[in-house]
From TrEMBL, chains A, B:
Compositionally skewed regions (Polar residues) per UniProt: 162-177, 188-199
Protein name per UniProt: carnosine N-methyltransferase
Region annotation (Disordered) ranges: 160-199
Record-linked SMART domains: N2227
Length: 482, 482
C-alpha cells in the first residue's frame, strides 16, 4: 500500500515534469515569430549603421527586410496551425509545481525518470498516428574555421510517452506577439492573404515563457527537417539516404505477404517519412522518436494534411550566409510533396514517442522485429554499445539490421554540462561490437550524403556515411551477458 | 601640449590593452595540455560508467587513453617551442592596469581602439618575418542537425601591430601544468624522447589565467590550420584553394621581372603559405593577418624551421567523432612539408599584422598594389562593402583582384553579443557592389573545396566557393564617393 502510494507519487511527478517539458517546447514554437523578427531587426540595425554611400549601394535592402517579414509570417502561420492541431497527451492547463525545487529542469535533463517502466504506448491506427529530434540543427551560418561545430548548451528534455491519461486534451492556441501584428500589416495570413484563425491570443500566459536560444534553433531545425522529409526539394537527400535502405528491405524480404507482413522498426524516425515509405512497401512499420519538436510536426503532416502542397514555407530565410542571391534565400518550398493519407500506407504503421533505450529494453520487445533500420541514429546514444545490444535483442533470430549514418556523437564535447556519459567509438570499433552481439555482415559500403542541407548554399556539410546490412545469427551464438 | 599628453595616454592605454590581449592568447596556448588532459579525463569517466560487460568489449580503451596522452604531449612540445621562439612586440612583464575598470576585455572586443592611426608596420626582410585567424575553427565534432554551426561567444581581440617600441622583448617560457608531468611519464618530450627545455615552469604566474573554452578551441584550430598550410596531408586542400590562384597570377603577370616585380597583397594570410607561394612565383608578396594566434605560429614556421618534417603533431586527436579507426584519429602529421628558408622566397616577402581596414585604409596605400588576393577572407568583414572599397582603392588602375571563398559571414548570428555590425550580402550583391567600385569581371567560376578538414573524417564541410578575377578599370571610372 505504501509502495502504491510511492508509485502514484512518482507517476504524478513524472507527468508534471513532462508537462513542463512540453510547455517549453510549445513555447519555443510560439516564440518563432518574435525570435525571427528580432533577427530582422538586427539586420536593420546593421544596415542603418552603414555610411550613406554604402547604404545607397544597398538601396534594395529595406525591401528585402519587408520580404523577410512576409516569409516569417507564412512560416508562423504553418507553425500555429500545427500547434492548433496538436492534442497534448496531458491536461496542459493543470498546475505544475513538479518538484518544488529549482533544479527541476536540470533534473529532467539528467534523465531522472529514465527508470519509469513504461514500454511503448504507441497507436497502431494506420492513419491516425501519434508521434515524437535527435538530430537537432543549427543554422549553418557561422563558425570560425570552416569546419562544423557543436551547439549543446541544452539538450532536449526527456519526453517518452506515458501510459497516459489523455484527460483534458487541450488544443493549443497560438500567441502571435505584438510584433507579429506589425509584419507588413499582414500578420498571420495564409497564401491567399486570409488572416488565419490562429491569430488569436492564447488565453494561457504561461506559454509566454522565456525561450532559450537553443530552443529557437530547434524550431528552425524542424523547418529544415520538413524539407528533408516532406518537400520535393528534399528528394535528392531522400534518394541518398532512404532509397538504399528501401531497396535493401525490398530485396531482403522478397515474398512478403499482406497476411503476415514483416515488422520493421525505425528508431530515430524524425518526421516520419522513412517509416512511411517502409509502410508503403508492405511492412508493419513503426517509427520511434524521442523529440516532441519532431512529434508535433510529424503528427500534423501525417494526420492533418488535406492535400499535397497544402502549405508554403520559407526554410532558408534564417541565414544570410552563403546565399547566391536574395531570391534563393527567400524561395518558397511547398509541403507535403505527397498526401500521406492516400500514399498507400499499409496496416500496422505507427509512430511511437519515447527514448529508444527505455521503450525497447522492455522484455516484451525481445525477438519481435524482422528488421531494424537506423538512419542517422546510432550516434544519438550516450552509450552506443547499449543501442547495439538492444537492437540485437529485439531482432528475431535471422533478422536484419540496416544502418546508414556517420558517427557524430551527440553527447561528445558537451563542455559546461553536467558530466553526461558519452561513449564515442570509431567505426571500426562499432563494427567489432556488433559482431560480439551476434551480428554478421552481409553488405557494407560508404554513401556520401547531406543532412537537412540547403541545396543552393555555398556551404554544405557532407557525410561519408557508413551503410551496412547485418544479420543476427541464430540464438546458438553466445552474446556477452550483462 | 595637452593634445600630446592625450595622445601619449591613448597610446599607453592601447599598448596595455594589446598586452592584455596577447597575454590571453599566450595563456590559451599554454593551457593546451591542461585542456586536452581534461578531455581525456572526461572520456575516462564515461568509460568507467560502463557496465562490466560493455567495458569488456572495449578493453583496449585504457590503452587508447594512454596513446592520446602521448599525442597531447607531442603537440604541447611543439606549442611550447613555438612560444619560446616568439618575441612579443611589447615588454610582456610590465604591469597592466589598462583601464582600471572591469570592462576592459569587453572594450577590446568592441574595437575601442580601431581609430588608432597606425598604418602597416611590416618588416620586409625576406627571411625574418613578423607575423599576425580570421577563420577560427571548431572541432567539427558535434551539432544537432547535421549542418555546420557557429561559435561566437567571444571573438578574437584586436591585435593590430603598432608603431611599436619593441622594448624589453621577452621570450616566453612555457607553463606545463602539474598534470603534464603525469602524461604517461613522458611529460614534454620530443620525438627522440628528450625532455625539452620548454618543460620549465614559467616564472610569470600571470599567464596562468582562466582560459575560456573558445580560446582553447582557437588553439585546436591553429593545429588544424597547420595541416592546411604546412603539411603534406594538406596538399589536396592547397591544390583546391591555392593552385587556381597561383595559376591565375602566373598567367596574368607573364613577363614579371626581378628588377621590378609586381606587388601582391594577401589579406587574411593565416599561416602564410599562400603568401609564400606567391613570393616563390617572383612577386613582392605581403600577407596581412589579424590574429596573434596565427601570427605566433606562422612566424615560428617561417623563421624558425630548421628542416622539413622537423615536427610531428597529432592534429586529429581532439575529436572522437566520425573516425574510421583509432589509428586514424591518432595518426601523426609531419611539418613543415617544405623548409621555408630554402623554398625560393623572393625579395619583398613580408607578413603584416593588423586589421585589414585599419592598416590599408591609410592614404599611403592608395594605388600601390598590382594584385590583391583574397582567399577565405571577404566574409571576415563587419562591412563587406568597406572591404571591397578598400581593395579597389589600394589597387593600381588596371590591377587585379583574385578572390576565392564562400560567404560565411563571421559576425552573422552573434546572439548574446554586443550589437556587432554585420552586413551579409548574397554573392549576387557582392558582385554588384564590386562593379560599382570600378571592377570588371575577367573570370568567374565555382570551386568545390574544404577548409582545414580531416581528410579521413566521415564528415566534411564542403564549400562551393566563388572564384573570380576582376580588374580595376582605369581611374576615369566614377567610383561612388563616401
Amino acid at each position: 500500500m505504501d509502495e502504491d502510494e510511492e508509485q502514484r507519487r512518482r507517476l504524478k511527478l513524472e507527468e508534471a515534469l513532462e508537462i513542463q517539458s512540453l510547455r517549453r517546447i510549445v513555447s519555443a514554437y510560439l516564440n518563432y515569430p518574435d525570435a525571427s523578427e528580432e533577427d530582422v531587426r538586427r539586420y536593420e540595425r546593421s544596415y542603418k549603421k552603414l555610411p550613406p554611400a554604402h547604404k545607397d549601394l544597398l538601396s534594395h535592402y529595406p525591401l528585402k527586410f519587408q520580404r523577410l517579414r512576409r516569409c516569417i509570417s507564412m512560416n508562423s502561420h504553418f507553425i500555429f496551425s500545427m500547434l492548433q492541431a496538436f492534442e497534448p497527451p496531458f491536461d496542459m492547463s493543470q498546475d505544475i509545481d513538479a518538484s518544488g525545487d529549482s533544479h527541476t529542469e536540470h533534473a529532467q535533463e539528467d534523465h531522472l525518470f529514465c527508470q519509469a517502466n513504461n514500454a511503448c504506448s504507441c497507436e497502431a491506427d494506420p492513419v491516425r498516428i501519434t508521434c515524437s529530434d535527435q538530430h537537432g540543427c543549427m543554422e549553418g551560418s557561422n563558425d570560425t574555421c570552416r569546419s562544423p561545430g557543436q551547439v549543446y548548451a541544452n539538450k532536449e528534455v526527456d519526453n517518452k510517452s506515458h501510459n497516459q491519461s489523455n484527460a483534458g486534451s487541450h488544443p493549443l492556441s497560438s500567441v502571435p506577439s505584438k510584433e507579429s501584428e506589425e509584419y507588413g500589416g499582414s500578420a498571420i495570413t495564409d497564401s491567399n492573404g486570409n488572416v488565419s484563425s490562429s491569430a488569436q491570443h492564447c488565453s494561457d500566459p504561461s506559454f509566454q515563457l522565456y525561450v532559450p536560444l537553443v530552443d529557437v534553433d530547434k524550431v528552425r531545425c524542424i523547418i529544415r527537417n520538413i524539407v528533408r522529409d516532406w518537400a520535393s526539394e528534399g528528394k535528392n537527400e531522400r534518394d541518398q539516404c532512404y532509397t538504399p535502405i528501401l531497396e535493401e528491405l525490398n530485396t531482403l524480404f522478397p515474398n512478403r505477404s499482406k497476411e503476415s507482413p514483416p515488422a520493421c522498426l525505425v528508431p530515430g524516425a524524425g518526421l516520419g517519412r522513412l517509416a512511411l515509405e517502409i509502410s508503403r512497401l508492405g511492412f508493419i512499420s513503426q517509427g520511434n522518436e524521442f523529440s516532441y519538436y519532431m512529434m508535433i510536426c510529424s503528427s500534423f503532416i501525417l494526420n492533418n494534411s488535406q492535400t499535397t502542397d497544402e502549405w508554403t514555407i520559407y526554410p532558408w530565410i534564417h541565414s544570410n550566409c552563403n546565399s547566391l542571391s536574395d531570391n534563393d534565400q527567400l524561395r518558397p518550398v511547398s509541403i507535403p510533396d505527397i498526401h500521406p493519407a492516400s500514399a498507400g500506407i499499409t496496416e500496422g504503421f505507427s509512430m511511437c514517442g519515447g527514448d529508444f533505450v527505455e521503450v525497447y529494453s522492455d522484455s516484451s520487445q525481445a525477438g519481435t522485429w524482422d528488421a531494424v533500420v537506423t538512419c542517422f541514429f546510432l550516434d544519438t546514444a550516450h552509450n552506443i554499445v547499449e543501442y547495439i545490444e538492444i537492437i540485437s535483442k529485439i531482432l528475431k533470430d535471422g533478422g536484419v539490421w540496416i544502418n546508414m549514418g556517420p558517427l557524430l556523437y551527440h553527447f561528445a564535447d558537451m563542455y559546461g554540462q553536467e558530466d553526461e556519459m558519452s561513449i564515442e567509438l570509431s567505426l571500426e570499433d562499432v563494427k567489432k561490437v556488433a559482431l560480439q552481439y551476434g551480428f554478421e555482415f552481409e553488405k557494407e559500403r560508404t554513401i556520401e550524403t547531406t543532412y537537412t542541407t540547403n541545396p543552393k548554399s555555398m556551404m554544405q556539410n557532407h557525410y561519408f556515411a557508413a551503410f551496412w546490412t547485418m544479420r543476427k545469427k541464430s540464438a546458438t551464438v553466445q552474446v556477452p551477458s550483462e
